[in-house]
Write a structure and sequence with these properties.
The complex is a heterodimer. Chain A is an alpha+beta fold. Chain A contains 18 helices and 30 strands. Helices cover 27% and strands 25% of the residues of chain A. Classes of the chains: A alpha+beta, B alpha+beta. The structure holds FE2/S2 (inorganic) cluster (2 copies).
C-alpha cells in the first residue's frame, strides 16, 4: 500500500526526515516502559488547569457563530443581514458576497467549493457567520439573518443514489468511485467448498461527537495568524488554513496542546477554522468560534453507513475457500472515503486463497464523512465475523476453532503478500478464549438457556490495516545541567497518553525521573513537524524517534565522560543516571557531575524516525470476547462482561493501555447497540436525531462492570526500535460483531443490521415466538 | 456601542438594582429546583439582553456580577469569571461535562441560570483543590487513570464528589448510577468506577 492511501495522510505532503543512522537494538529489560504509570499531564487534566482551545479567554476576545443551511440541497439566492446588523453587540457579519470571505475550499479529489458556497450540498453547509461580543448575541444574530433559498430535490438514500431518476448531488452524477479487488478464483473456490453461505449486512451511520466541541480561537498580530484549535494535527491545520487564506506557512501558527477528543473527526481543519480567522481579521479582535453540539452532528464527519453482502465458502475441516464481498457506502456530499477500507478484513484477516470485493461509493446530500476510529473496519467486521460464526455452526465447529484454522502469516490483501513482522492473532484468540473461559461459558449457556433471560457468548478477531507508523518524525530532547529534560514533539496527545509514553521512553534511556521531564508539544510555532495523531500510529511513529533523540544525548554525554575519565568511549556504559567504565566498575560519574555539561548548561539531542522494514507489514491484531444476557420478553440486551486480547507489540504503559482497550470496547458497544444517524427520507431530508438525547452514546450504565484487558505482548524487533504497534483503533474493531454473535448464541437470532436494539430484537423475537 | 445605547444600558442597570430582589424571587419561584429560597412575590419580567447585578458564591468566594437573565451559570463560570475547569459538551443537559455542585448536589451548570444560583454555594472542580494540591477525588482519578482526553473529567469528578458527600461508601451499582449522568466519549468508565471506589476509601482515612 502506498502512503497516500493511508487516510490520515490523505491531502498531506509530509516532509521527509533524514535517516536516523544506526538503529538501537530492542530493550531487553525495562525499568520504566510497560509500568502502570499515571499520566504526566494528569494534574492539569484533573485540576481543571489544562487549557483546552475552547477554554481560552484572550484579552478583547469576541465570539463567532455560523449560520448553516437548513436544507439537504439548496441554492442560496439572497442573504439579508440587515436584521442582524441592528442587534447591539454584533460586530461583523460575513457571507458569500463578503470580499474577505471569497475563499476557495478544496475538498478531496478535486472537488472545490467556496467557503460560503451558494450551492449547498448538505444540511449544515456554512452560509454566513457572525462575530459578536458574547456567544448569545452571536446566536441571536444568526437566527435573524434572512436567507432566501431555492430548495432543490435531494437524495439521501444511498441505495437509491444511482437510480436514473435520482437527483444529482454533483453534475457528474452520484457515483464517486468503484473499488475492486480480486485474488484467486472465487467461482472455483465456491465449487470446492462443502458449505457456502451468503447474507446481506448493514451498518448505520455513526457520528464521532467527541466531548470537546469542534472549534478554535483565532487571533491576528499584524499579518500573523495564531489559531488555538482543538485538533489531532496542528501541522495539518496549518497547511489547510495557509492554503485557503493564501498565507505563507510561517504566518500561520497553530497550537493545540490539549484537545478533548477527536476520533478522526479532528484530523484536519474545518471551514470553521478559516471562518474564525476571517472574523478575527474583520473585527481586529481574537475570535472564539466553538460549534454547537447540533452542528457537530451535521458538518464535521461521520462513519459512513455500509450496505454489504458477503458470500463465503468453507471446507468440512474449516478451511476457507472463497470470500466474495460487495458494499455500497456513502461519504456524503463530497468525496470522503464512503467505502474506505470496508473490505480490508475480508481481504486480510483470515487465510483464504480466493477473494473478490467490490465497493461502491456514492454521493448523497448529507454531511461528508471523516475518518472514524478504524475507518471501514468495524463495518467489515460486522459482516465477516458474523459470517464466520454462521459457517462454524454449519460445520458444527467451535467459532474459535474455525478462526484458528485460518490464521495467516502474510498480509494477503497487500500487493506481493508481505509477511507480518509479528502476528499475534493466534495467541490473541487462544489466550483470550482461555482467559475468558470460552468453552465453559458456551457449555453452561447451552444447557441452561430456556427461561426469559438467555445468555450467550460471542467473539471476533481483528487486524488493523496500518498501525506500524513510520517516518517522518523529528524529536528534540534537551538535557539541562541539573539533569532535568525538555522533550519537544509536534504530535498531539488526543487522550491516548502519547505524552506520558514519550516521557517514559526518555526516562528509560536517560534515567531521568518522569517528574523532571517537561513536554512541549502540538504547536507549529515551537515544535517539530508531525503528522496528525490518528491511524494508531502515533506511538510507533514518535517513540522510536524519541528513543533516538535520547540516545543522541547519551552519545554526547559519553563523549564528555570519556574525556573526563580519560578512557575509551567504547569502554563506557550507562547505568541509571550514571556513566560507568565497563572494565573498572568503581570508576563512575554522575551525569550531572560531568564538568562539560555543567559549563555548557544543556545538551540537545535530535532523533528521527527510521524507515519501516522493507517488504514486511507491521500490523496490530486482536480478539475480543463477550457475554450478553437477552431478555426475550422485552428485547433488552445487557452486556455482562468483555475481554479484549490485543497484540499491539510492546506494552508501553499498562495503565493507559488498559484504558484504551476499555475505551475501544465502549465505543464498539455504542456502534452495536445504540448509535445511528436518522435522516428523514420522507419529507425534509434532514437529520432528526442531532443531539445526545436522541442519538445515544453508551453511558456508565451500558458498559459491563467486568472488563478485562489481556495484552498479548510479542517481541517485534523489526517493527521499530521500541517494538510498539498501534492500539487505539484495533480495540474497537471486533466489538460490535462479537456482541451480535453473542446475541445469536443466546437467542438464535442473527441481527444483521446495526443497532441491535430493542425495536429490532423485539420484532425478531415475536416472529420467532409465532413460528413456535 | 452608540451613545444612546450606553445611556439606555445605564438606566436599565440602575432600574435593575432597585428591583433585583423581586426579580430573584420571581426566578426562584418559577424554578422548582430552588423553591423555598425566598418569599415568592409577583414575578418581574426581565428582557433577555438587559443586565442584572447578582452575587454568586463560587468556591467560597463572593463574585458580584452583571449578568443577563438568560445567561447560564456555565457561561458565567467559563466566559465571564474564567473558571474554565467546568466544561461545555452540549449546553443542553445531555452530557454532564458542566457538572458543578450546588449546595453539595451535582447539577448541570448549563441547565442552571446564573441568576438561579444566587444564594447557593457553587463548587467547581477548582474548588476541590487545596491550594496547589489536588483534592481526594482528583488524586484518585490520577492514580486510576480515570480519563483519556480529559474533557468530561471535571464533570465526572464533580459528580463523584457529590455522590461521596451524600453517600460516603457507595456500592458499585451506586457508583455507576452516580456518574451515569456524565458521558465519556473516550469510554474511560471502567477506570472512573475504580477511581470513585478508591476515593471513597481514601476519604475514610
Ligand atoms: S454541557 Fe451541560 S450537560 Fe452537556
Ligand atoms: S475522557 Fe474524553 S470524554 Fe471522557
Amino acid at each position: 500500500m502506498k502512503n497516500d492511501s493511508v487516510y490520515y495522510l490523505k491531502d498531506i505532503t509530509a516532509p521527509e526526515t533524514p535517516e536516523p543512522g544506526e538503529n538501537p537494538s530492542p530493550w531487553t529489560n525495562t525499568t520504566i516502559i510497560g509500568k502502570r504509570l499515571p499520566r504526566v499531564d494528569a494534574y492539569e487534566r484533573t485540576s481543571g488547569s489544562a487549557l483546552y482551545p475552547s477554554d481560552l479567554l484572550l484579552p478583547n476576545m469576541v465570539y463567532g457563530a455560523v449560520l448553516r443551511c437548513p436544507h439537504p440541497h439548496a441554492r442560496v439566492k439572497r442573504v439579508n443581514t440587515r436584521p442582524a446588523e441592528g442587534i447591539k453587540g454584533v460586530l461583523t457579519i460575513i457571507t458569500g458576497t463578503t470580499p474577505e470571505a471569497d475563499v476557495w475550499w478544496r475538498n478531496e479529489d478535486g472537488y472545490r467549493s467556496k467557503l460560503f458556497d451558494p450551492h449547498c450540498h448538505y444540511e449544515g453547509e456554512a452560509v454566513a457567520a457572525v462575530a459578536a461580543l458574547d456567544p448569545y448575541t452571536a446566536q441571536d444574530a444568526v437566527k435573524v439573518i434572512q436567507v432566501e433559498y431555492e430548495v432543490l430535490p435531494y437524495i439521501i438514500d444511498e441505495e437509491r443514489a444511482l437510480d436514473s431518476d435520482a437527483p444529482r448531488v454533483h453534475p457528474k452524477g452520484n457515483l464517486v468511485d468503484t473499488e475492486s479487488y480480486e485474488r484467486g478464483d472465487v467461482d472455483q473456490g465456491f465449487a470446492q467448498a462443502d458449505v457456502v453461505r451468503e447474507r446481506p449486512f448493514h451498518t448505520r451511520c455513526e457520528i464521532h461527537t467527541p466531548m470537546e466541541l469542534h472549534g478554535c480561537v483565532a487571533e491576528w498580530k499584524g499579518d500573523t495568524l495564531t489559531l488555538h484549535e482543538s485538533t489531532q494535527g496542528v501541522y495539518a491545520v496549518q497547511a489547510k488554513v495557509a492554503e485557503a487564506l493564501r498565507l505563507p506557512l510561517s504566518r500561520v501558527r497553530v497550537s493545540g496542546r490539549y484537545m478533548g477528543g477527536g476520533f478522526g473527526s479532528k484530523l484536519k481543519a474545518g471551514k470553521y477554522t478559516v471562518i474564525s480567522a476571517i472574523l478575527a481579521r474583520k473585527t481586529a479582535r481574537p475570535v472564539k468560534l466553538v460549534l454547537t453540539r447540533e452542528e457537530t452532528y451535521l458538518a464535521v464527519g461521520n462513519r459512513p453507513s455500509s450496505h454489504m453482502t458477503l458470500k463465503a465458502g468453507v471446507k468440512k475441516d474449516g478451511t476457507l475457500t472463497a470470500l466474495q464481498f460487495t458494499c455500497t457506502g456513502t461519504g456524503g456530499a463530497y468525496p470522503a472515503g464512503g467505502v474506505a477500507l470496508v473490505d480490508w478484513l475480508i481481504r486480510d484477516l483470515y487465510t483464504c486463497p480466493s477473494v473478490k470485493t467490490e465497493c461502491r461509493d456514492v454521493f448523497i446530500n448529507a454531511g461528508p464523512a471523516r475518518p472514524f476510529r478504524a475507518p471501514g473496519h468495524p463495518q467489515g467486521s460486522w459482516a465477516l465475523e458474523q459470517m464466520m460464526d454462521e459457517l462454524a455452526e454449519a460445520l458444527h465447529m467451535d467459532p474459535v476453532d474455525l478462526r484458528l484454522k485460518n490464521i495467516p502469516t502474510v498480509s494477503q490483501g497487500r500487493t506481493g503478500q508481505p509477511a507480518y513482522t509479528s502476528t499475534g492473532l493466534k495467541e490473541c484468540i487462544e489466550s483470550g478464549a482461555q482467559s475468558f473461559g470460552w468453552k465453559a461459558a458456551r457449555q453452561r449457556n447451552k444447557s441452561s438457556n430456556t427461561g426469559t433471560l438467555r445468555r450467550g457468548v460471542g467473539m471476533g478477531g481483528c487486524v488493523w490495516f496500518v498501525g506500524g507508523g513510520g517516518p517522518p518524525s523529528t524529536i528534540i530532547v534537551k538535557l539541562f545541567k541539573d539533569g532535568s529534560v525538555n522533550l519537544n514533539m509536534g504530535a498531539s496527545d488526543i487522550g491516548t497518553g502519547t505524552k506520558t509514553i514519550m516521557a517514559m521512553v526518555v526516562a528509560e534511556e536517560l534515567g531521568v525521573k518522569l517528574k523532571n521531564i517537561q513536554i512541549e508539544n502540538a504547536d507549529t510555532g515551537t515544535t517539530q513537524y508531525a503528522t496528525p495523531s490518528g491511524g494508531s500510529k502515533t506511538v510507533p511513529t514518535e517513540s522510536p524517534a524519541v528513543r533516538n533523540a535520547a540516545i543522541h544525548i547519551k552519545q554526547k554525554l559519553m563523549e564528555m565522560a570519556a574525556e573526563e575519565l580519560d578512557c575509551d568511549f567504547e569502554d563506557l556504559e550507562f547505568e541509571g543516571d550514571e556513566i560507568i567504565v565497563s572494565s573498572r566498575k568503581e570508576q563512575r560519574i554522575k551525569i550531572t557531575d560531568i564538568p562539560k555539561l555543567k559549563k555548557q548548561g544543556v545538551i540537545v539531542g535530535v532523533g528521527y524516525r527510521g524507515p519501516n522494514p522493507e517488504n514486511k507489514s507491521v500490523n496490530p491484531f486482536g480478539a475480543q470476547f463477550c457475554e450478553v444476557e437477552v431478555n426475550t420478553r422485552t428485547g433488552e440486551v445487557r452486556i455482562l462482561r468483555f475481554l479484549g486480547a490485543h497484540d499491539s507489540g510492546r506494552v508501553m504503559n499498562r495503565l493507559t493501555y488498559d484504558n484504551q482497550v476499555f475505551g475501544g470496547i465502549t465505543m464498539g458497544i455504542g456502534f452495536a447497540l445504540t448509535e445511528f444517524r436518522v435522516l428523514d427520507t420522507g419529507q425534509t431530508g434532514k437529520m432528526v436525531n442531532r443531539n445526545w438525547h436522541d442519538y445515544k452514546l453508551p453511558t456508565a450504565l451500558d458498559v459491563p462492570a467486568d472488563m478485562k484487558s489481556l495484552p498479548i505482548e510479542l517481541d517485534d524487533p523489526e517493527a521499530n526500535n521500541t517494538g510498539a504497534k498501534g492500539l487505539g483503533e484495533p480495540v474497537t474493531i471486533p466489538t460490535a460483531a462479537a456482541i451480535a454473535n453473542a446475541i445469536y448464541d443466546a437467542t438464535g437470532i442473527r441481527i444483521t443490521e446495526t443497532p441491535a436494539f430493542v425495536p429490532h430484537l423485539i420484532t425478531r423475537l415475536n416472529d420467532l415466538a409465532k413460528e413456535g | 456601542m452608540s451613545d444612546k445605547d450606553s445611556k439606555r444600558g445605564g438606566i436599565t442597570r440602575r432600574s435593575f438594582i432597585t428591583t433585583m430582589g423581586a426579580g430573584v424571587a420571581g426566578v426562584a419561584a418559577s424554578g422548582a429546583l430552588f423553591s423555598g429560597t425566598s418569599q415568592a412575590k409577583a414575578p418581574e419580567i426581565h428582557k433577555a439582553g438587559e443586565a442584572m447585578r447578582i452575587t454568586l458564591t463560587i468556591n467560597d468566594h463572593p463574585y458580584v456580577l452583571l449578568v443577563e437573565p438568560r445567561w447560564t451559570l456555565l457561561h458565567v463560570l467559563r466566559e465571564v469569571i474564567g473558571l474554565t475547569g467546568t466544561k461545555e459538551g452540549c449546553g443542553r443537559g445531555e452530557c454532564g461535562a458542566c457538572t458543578v455542585l450546588i449546595d453539595d448536589i451535582p447539577r448541570y451548570a448549563c441547565m442552571t441560570l446564573a441568576v438561579e444560583a444566587q444564594g447557593h454555594a457553587v463548587t467547581t472542580v477548582e474548588g476541590l483543590m487545596h491550594g496547589e494540591d489536588l483534592g481526594v477525588v482528583q488524586q484518585a482519578f490520577v492514580q486510576k487513570d480515570a480519563f483519556q482526553c480529559g474533557y468530561c473529567t471535571s464533570g465526572q469528578i464533580m459528580a463523584s464528589e457529590g455522590l461521596l458527600r451524600a453517600n460516603p461508601l457507595p456500592s458499585s451499582e451506586e457508583i455507576r448510577r452516580g456518574v451515569s449522568g456524565n458521558l465519556c466519549r473516550c469510554g474511560a468508565y471502567t477506570h472512573i468506577f475504580e477511581a470513585v471506589e478508591a476515593a471513597a476509601e481514601m476519604k475514610q482515612k
